[in-house]
């Protein structure tokens, strides 16, 4: 219990620190997680005996990985990068040229990797090598397709990263609590501990939490302002209509019992209700996917593979933003 308590405090504290430091540090955190995810997933179908006969074959996986990273992040961060470079310097021209030919560079890097793969083919190893080639591409498609939504959300405003992530955490916690105390009817055979009572009860708590949390987070400009460059300072901006409070007069009978005559609601809170409902209904299937994946590959430890599978739930929620 103490080990779990310490690790929880350090993880929550570290995550809060990264969020506090801003957009670039959150993006860096996502990139680091991606690298460890890819490392674990690459090793999942790896066979040491076959790799002994294929020296340097593992480097090919990382060649495709960093090519995909250059393609995805080059497209997402091109404009912020241009905005961060002074126009009258050589660096600006270099960066502009790099962005201009980014697609061509990624294409030729991929072709180089393809040729590299063909040249490494060995007799009696074809099936293993082509299986690894297909597995690598599947990993890249799943990881980078989803991560593009993540990074795009971060630069649209930390709010759009933090709120969905928080809703998934809240959904998981209350699903366990409600299911533990009130769960009776099994929901799905893949996860025997999931119950209908927990599924329904957590929908209400997640939507309420989304409504309240959106009001709290939406009050901070450094969370709601989009980042247009790659600087690290705090932002000041016009919050936009979604984050400007609207005031509603309460009925007279409420004023008799409570001291409030009106309340302020941010328009984004109505959007948060939809995100909360989406998280409650759809996101648990990310957990079911993780359960099936662990059973299929007989994974029991909390490696970065499982962290990746948990992040699938977050990705489902982030996609709702777009």
UniProtKB/TrEMBL annotation:
<keyword id="KW-0548">Nucleotidyltransferase</keyword>
<dbReference type="InterPro" id="IPR016720">
    <property type="entry name" value="PC_Trfase_euk"/>
</dbReference>
<feature type="transmembrane region" description="Helical">
    <location>
        <begin position="12"/>
        <end position="38"/>
    </location>
</feature>
<feature type="transmembrane region" description="Helical">
    <location>
        <begin position="158"/>
        <end position="183"/>
    </location>
</feature>
<keyword id="KW-0812">Transmembrane</keyword>
<dbReference type="GO" id="GO:0005789">
    <property type="term" value="C:endoplasmic reticulum membrane"/>
</dbReference>
<feature type="transmembrane region" description="Helical">
    <location>
        <begin position="195"/>
        <end position="217"/>
    </location>
</feature>
<comment type="pathway">
    <text>Phospholipid metabolism; CDP-diacylglycerol biosynthesis; CDP-diacylglycerol from sn-glycerol 3-phosphate: step 3/3.</text>
</comment>
<keyword id="KW-0472">Membrane</keyword>
<keyword id="KW-0444">Lipid biosynthesis</keyword>
<keyword id="KW-0594">Phospholipid biosynthesis</keyword>
<dbReference type="GO" id="GO:0004605">
    <property type="term" value="F:phosphatidate cytidylyltransferase activity"/>
</dbReference>
<dbReference type="Pfam" id="PF01148">
    <property type="entry name" value="CTP_transf_1"/>
</dbReference>
<keyword id="KW-1133">Transmembrane helix</keyword>
<comment type="similarity">
    <text>Belongs to the CDS family.</text>
</comment>
<feature type="transmembrane region" description="Helical">
    <location>
        <begin position="59"/>
        <end position="78"/>
    </location>
</feature>
<keyword id="KW-0808">Transferase</keyword>
<keyword id="KW-0443">Lipid metabolism</keyword>
<dbReference type="GO" id="GO:0016024">
    <property type="term" value="P:CDP-diacylglycerol biosynthetic process"/>
</dbReference>
<feature type="transmembrane region" description="Helical">
    <location>
        <begin position="270"/>
        <end position="293"/>
    </location>
</feature>
<feature type="transmembrane region" description="Helical">
    <location>
        <begin position="98"/>
        <end position="121"/>
    </location>
</feature>
<keyword id="KW-1208">Phospholipid metabolism</keyword>
<comment type="pathway">
    <text>Lipid metabolism.</text>
</comment>
<protein>
    <recommendedName>
        <fullName>phosphatidate cytidylyltransferase</fullName>
        <ecNumber>2.7.7.41</ecNumber>
    </recommendedName>
</protein>
<feature type="transmembrane region" description="Helical">
    <location>
        <begin position="133"/>
        <end position="152"/>
    </location>
</feature>
């Amino acid at each position: 219990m103490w080990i779990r308590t310490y690790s929880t405090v350090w993880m929550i504290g570290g995550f809060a620190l990264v969020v506090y430091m801003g957009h670039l540090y959150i993006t860096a955190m996502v990139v680091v997680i991606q690298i460890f995810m890819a490392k674990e997933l690459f090793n999942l179908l790896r066979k040491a005996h076959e790799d002994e006969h294929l020296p340097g074959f593992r480097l090919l996986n990382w060649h495709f990985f960093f090519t995909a990273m250059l393609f995805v992040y080059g497209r997402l961060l091109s404009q912020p990068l241009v905005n961060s470079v002074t126009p009258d310097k050589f660096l600006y021209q270099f960066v502009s040229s790099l962005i201009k030919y980014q697609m061509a560079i990624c294409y030729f890097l991929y072709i180089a990797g393809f040729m590299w793969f063909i040249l490494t083919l060995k007799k009696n190893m074809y099936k293993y090598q082509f299986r690894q080639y297909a597995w690598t591409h599947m990993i890249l498609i799943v990881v980078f397709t989803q991560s593009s939504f993540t990074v795009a959300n971060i630069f649209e405003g930390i709010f759009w990263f933090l709120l969905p992530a928080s809703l998934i955490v809240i959904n998981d916690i209350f699903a366990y609590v409600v299911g533990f105390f009130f769960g009776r009817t099994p929901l799905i055979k893949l996860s025997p501990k999931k119950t209908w009572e927990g599924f329904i009860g957590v929908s209400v708590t997640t939507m309420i939490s989304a409504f309240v949390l959106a009001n709290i987070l939406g009050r901070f400009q450094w969370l709601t302002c989009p980042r247009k460059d790659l600087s690290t300072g705090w932002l000041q901006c016009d919050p936009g209509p979604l984050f400007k409070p609207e005031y509603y007069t309460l009925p007279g009978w409420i004023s008799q019992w409570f001291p409030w005559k009106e309340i302020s609601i941010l328009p984004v809170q109505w959007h948060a209700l939809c995100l909360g409902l989406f998280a409650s209904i759809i996101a648990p299937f990310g957990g079911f996917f993780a359960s099936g994946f662990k059973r299929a590959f007989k994974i029991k430890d909390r490696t970065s593979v499982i962290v990746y599978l948990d992040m699938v739930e977050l990705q489902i929620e982030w996609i709702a933003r777009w």
